[in-house]
């Protein structure tokens, strides 16, 4: 079983569901030519898609275009349903760094045919995830710098200030649809600069005050 760790607090949670927000940064919506959604776009990854710092990404043979998406990850510590926006932060255990790996060619084909995205988003190794820092150590989750580099070259450099739906709005909205439980993880979308990965690449994602995550592509 996969676990989410908060080493500073000595806490560990078995990972439940991984809920992801798509199209949450205006600049990223523009680069993919998507429309700005009225409500957050939500999809899920299975816990089996998680790998940790230092692990290897394995791109499935049915794709020739695997993209990186660096994202702020939220770890739920206290469960809830219909959580009001102003109470959401008390349900949060920690913040982490995630990479939402996306098989862009497969996803584009699925979008065209109005089919679900799981095989483009939920394959084994599709969710590199760092350890978490306690939620209380981050004073403002909407003022964090997100960066991702590939082989030392900066590809993504954005701020959580550019999110369309904020962390508290996302938790509240998601909890109106899915009961949240301790160990659930929420990925909050990616800023601009997504791009392809190829075998041998070394990928480093970093969020100011939260941590970093380095993985390689087999
Ligand atoms: Zn994403």
Keywords:
218 residues, Fumarylacetoacetate hydrolase, domain 2, globular, 4 helices, 5-stranded mixed beta sheet, 13% helix, binds zinc ion, mainly beta, 6-stranded mixed beta sheet
What is the topological layout?
Layout: E1 3-6, E2 11-14, E3 18-22, H1 26-32, E4 41-45, E5 50-51, E6 56-57, E7 66-68, E8 70-76, E9 92-99, E10 102-103, H2 104-112, H3 118-121, E11 127-128, E12 133-134, E13 145-150, E14 153-159, H4 167-175, E15 185-187, E16 195-197, E17 202-207, E18 211-217
Parallel strand pairs: 3-15, 5-11, 6-18
Antiparallel strand pairs: 1-2, 3-4, 7-10, 7-16, 8-9, 8-15, 9-12, 13-14, 13-17, 17-18
The structure holds zinc ion.
Zinc ion is lined by residues 20, 22, 69, 71, 100, 189-190.
Descriptive notes:
The protein is mainly beta and 218 residues long. 13% of the residues lie in helices and 36% in strands. It is built from 4 helices and 18 strands. The chain has a 6-stranded mixed β-sheet, with helices on one face. A 5-stranded mixed β-sheet has the order 6-18-17-13-14, with no helix packed on it. Strand 17 (202-207) and strand 18 form a beta hairpin. The relative contact order is 0.28. The mean pLDDT is 97. The site of zinc ion has 7 residues, from strand 3.
